[in-house]
Amino acid sequence: MVMESYTLTVAESETGDGLDVDVYNEDGTIDASTWVGYEDHGVTAEEVDDPATYESEFTADVMTLDLQVERDDGGFLVRVLGDQETLAEERLDDEEWGLAGGS
User: Fold this and answer.
1) In angstroms, what CA-CA distances link 93 with 43, 65, 73?
2) Are 51 and 39 in contact (CB under 8 A)?
3) Measured by CB atoms within 10 angstroms of the end CB, which terminus of the chain is less buried, N or C?
4) pLDDT greater than 80 at residue 1
5) β-sheet bridge partners, residue 79
6) pLDDT band at residue 77 using 50, 70 and 90 as cut-offs
7) What is the 3-state secondary structure (H, E, C) of the chain?
8) What is the pTM of this model?
9) Cβ contacts of 64 within 8 Å, gap of 6 or more
10) Cα angle vertex 40, ends 84, 89, to 5°?
11) Which residues, 6 or more positions from 25, have their beta carbon under 8 angstroms from its beta carbon?
């Protein structure tokens, strides 16, 4: 197997009601994707002109990719798993993302 480069991208959805979480391969194709609804976690987005976006690159030699998104105290924890091992992890704080109402 060969090491490949990936990009984790987290952005507020176009409708402003959740997070789009995608992992792109080096060809720009989405290899893993999920959507997390704010309502499911008791938070709402404040009106902002320029919503936050997070992007991180990593390399891995894996057969499978999966995404995990968990809600913790005051934010979301996003993990990229490759062959069930953590490859990338990012915590998204409510305050930084303009979210209100969560615990």
Assistant:
1) 12, 24, 9
2) no
3) N
4) no
5) 68, 89
6) very high
7) CCCEEEEEEEEECCCCCEEEEEEEECCCCEEEEEEEECHHHCCEECCCCCCCEEEEEEEECCCCEEEEEEEECCEEEEEEEECCEEEEEEEEEHHHHCEECCC
8) 0.89
9) 82, 83, 84
10) 30
11) 4, 5, 6, 31
**What does the domain layout of the chain look like in residue ranges?**
4-100
Q: How many whole angstroms separate alpha carbon 84 and alpha carbon 66?
A: 8
Specify the pLDDT at position 102. 62
Q: How far apart are CA 87 and CA 89, in angstroms?
A: 7
pLDDT tens for each residue of 13-47: 988 899 999 999 999 999 999 999 999 999 988 87
